[in-house]
Amino acid sequence: MSTTHESHLVGLIGQGVLPSLTPALHEREADQHRIRYLYRPLDLDIMSYEPTQVGSLLRAAAEFGYTAVNVTHPCKQLVMDALDEASDDTQRLGAANTVLIRDGKFIGHNTDFSGFSSALATGLPGVAVDRVVQLGAGGAGSAVSYALLAAGVSSLSIADLDVARAEERAASLSALFPDASVTAFDRGDIGAALGNADGFVHATPVGMHSHPGMPVEASLLRPDLWVADVVYRPLETELVRTARDLGCRVLDGGYMAVGQAADAFTLITGISPDRDRMRRHFLELIAEGR
Ligand SMILES: NC(=O)c1ccc[n+]([C@@H]2O[C@H](COP(=O)([O-])OP(=O)(O)OC[C@H]3O[C@@H](n4cnc5c(N)ncnc54)[C@H](O)[C@@H]3O)[C@@H](O)[C@H]2O)c1
Ligand SMILES: O=C(O)[C@]1(O)C[C@@H](O)[C@@H](O)[C@H](O)C1
């Protein structure tokens, strides 16, 4: 037997979480540091919990000895009400994906945004970030926009199939980052928007195995435009492949996936993981078809 001070018991709360690669990434990295660490999926549907009951599930997890959880769709915003504390960025974003359970208190963090920040710094070092165009303003897109503005993007243009969502995101981000220009635009105008952009970030499901295709026409890409995709199943999306073939610097969605896992691991254990090793492990898992 071990106490909560001697070992880590971590969960992933959300819907459809069984295929997640995050548990394997955490456990393998913990093995390398010789710490006792178990990471279990806590699927809402399997456990018959409604998303709105995420607070009850957190309290149950605390009683069962869990020391932390990641939280995913559709609970990242809902969990905010159950927290005792949250980092400044998490409060500003209004969404948490990592909750530390410390002395019965729930402390929220958001490693989606910090994971994308580190992904950008690691995978695309030194790129110009004055003007960025982003497609997709949903869950991943919100964290990515926040990361881009925190990284110093001065002009961020956001489009989404759901025009109201893009407008709402642009308005709330403008309030959070008053020195930056954050605007929503019609996705039909993406050619003009990309015309003078430094980078393009894609955050819709287009390009996933279940939604194959290109989110923008290849003719709109040019070698001096960097391209980041958040989709990582497949890792080599049509966008990533096309952009790379055209000579663009590219960031695949695996960097963000590993970044969020690495940052959560640090928060949970206080240990800095080997991010290159986690990335290699991630690539192995993807190659195995996980
Ligand atoms: N790399 C990572 O760590 C990571 C993390 C979370 C999600 N993801 C991936 O990001 C993608 C999006 O996930 P999400 O959780 O943000 O989903 P979501 O449903 O919350 O948001 C997707 C958004 O894209 C918009 N959209 C869909 N099709 C569009 C199109 N053709 N043009 C413009 N907008 C369109 C939708 O209206 C919605 O606002 C998925 O592929 C998911 O697997 C990656
Ligand atoms: O790997 C997953 O399935 C995740 O759910 C992806 C993303 O939602 C992260 O915020 C979670 O920490 C883990």
TrEMBL record:
CDD domains: NAD_bind_Shikimate_DH. GO terms for biological process: amino acid biosynthetic process; aromatic amino acid family biosynthetic process; chorismate biosynthetic process; shikimate metabolic process. Residues 12-99 form the Shikimate dehydrogenase substrate binding N-terminal domain. InterPro entries: Aminoacid_DH-like_N_sf, NAD(P)-bd_dom_sf, Shikimate_DH-bd_N, Shikimate_DH_fam. Its EC number is 1.1.1.24. Keywords: Amino-acid biosynthesis, Aromatic amino acid biosynthesis, Oxidoreductase. Pathway: Aromatic compound metabolism; 3,4-dihydroxybenzoate biosynthesis; 3-dehydroquinate from D-quinate (NAD(+) route); Metabolic intermediate biosynthesis; chorismate biosynthesis; chorismate from D-erythrose 4-phosphate and phosphoenolpyruvate: step 4/7. Transmembrane segments: none annotated. It comes from the Bacteria. One of its GO terms (molecular function) is shikimate 3-dehydrogenase (NADP+) activity. It catalyses: shikimate + NAD(+) = 3-dehydroshikimate + NADH + H(+); L-quinate + NAD(+) = 3-dehydroquinate + NADH + H(+). It is an enzyme of class 1 (oxidoreductase). Pfam families: Shikimate_dh_N. GO terms for cellular component: cytosol. NCBIfam families: PRK12549.1. This is Quinate/shikimate dehydrogenase (NAD(+)).
